[in-house]
Design goal:
alpha/beta; 8-stranded mixed beta sheet; two-stranded antiparallel ribbon; 9 helices
């Protein structure tokens, strides 16, 4: 049995960094400098939307979520699991980090089912059923850094577009029995803010009672809610720490000097 106290970082990077070559290069340099085992989960940024426009494939969003028809799924797979994933891998290699790029279909790493909704047909969007933690752990034991694209499969030959925040949370929780897992969500803000227009209003820590109160007061709303819900789900399933903060401050976030820490109490 391996040492359960060995640390594992599961870090989600957002499109705001992926869309900027300079920021991506700097982020991956900082990511490479982290000691120990680590997994990077990425989204897709604006490239998929740009390519869809060039190919004249209409795109539809509902509450910030992409409706994924068959043609859009092809673009997402090409962009997310192809170009973006492999570009991150080669940049990590240039920083001395031996990385391997994967999506959920590889080695049946993440199994999902097509989302069922009474009100909206999301198309080929997947909700996660199972993560193959033994496979992921076998790669980590080879000292490989995993770069995971948000594409899963349903075991019946169908690829599915799946939310990257949820993938990060699911991977983190599935490995919490093996490691001391720190889940880090990076995005464009320095943390969860009390005032979205004031970047100095970072909430340093957030427990369930505070979260409920801030939601009732409509101080936390819209796009932050799914991210925080994922964070609390991870904590409830055995992840030791979840941090939300700015990608450019990765070193500070992982050193406990910034961002918002999600906690039990």
């Amino acid at each position: 049995m391996m040492n359960s106290k060995e640390k594992l970082y599961v870090i989600k990077i957002g499109g705001n960094v992926i869309d900027d070559d300079r920021r991506l290069t700097e982020f991956l340099r900082d990511f490479s400098a982290l000691q120990g085992k680590k997994i990077l989960v990425h989204g897709g940024g604006k490239l998929a939307t740009k390519l869809a426009a060039e190919l004249q494939i209409p795109q539809h969003m509902v509450d910030g979520r992409r409706i994924t028809d068959a043609e859009t799924l092809k673009i997402i797979t090409m962009v997310y699991a192809g170009y973006i994933n492999k570009n991150i891998v080669v940049l990590l290699q240039s920083n001395g980090t031996n990385a391997i790029g994967l999506c959920g279909a590889d080695a049946s790493m993440i199994r999902a089912h097509r989302r069922i909704s009474n009100n909206i047909d999301y198309g080929f969007v997947g909700d996660i059923d199972e993560v193959n933690h033994d496979f992921i752990n076998s790669l980590l034991q080879l000292n490989l850094t995993l770069v995971v694209a948000p594409v899963t499969h349903d075991q019946h030959g169908q690829l599915l577009n799946t939310n990257a925040d949820t993938i990060a949370q699911s991977i983190a929780t599935s490995l919490s029995g093996y490691y001391y897992v720190e889940l880090v969500y990076t995005f464009e803000k320095p943390g969860v803010l009390l005032d979205v227009d004031d970047e100095t209003s970072v909430i340093p820590s957030l427990n369930p009672e505070q979260y409920a109160a801030y939601r009732d007061q409509q101080k936390i709303f819209a796009g932050m809610i799914p991210k925080i819900d994922n964070a609390f789900a991870a904590i409830g399933a055995g992840v030791h720490k979840v941090i939300i903060g700015k990608a450019e401050a990765l070193h500070n976030l992982t050193s406990g000097n910034g961002g918002t820490t999600i906690c039990h109490e």
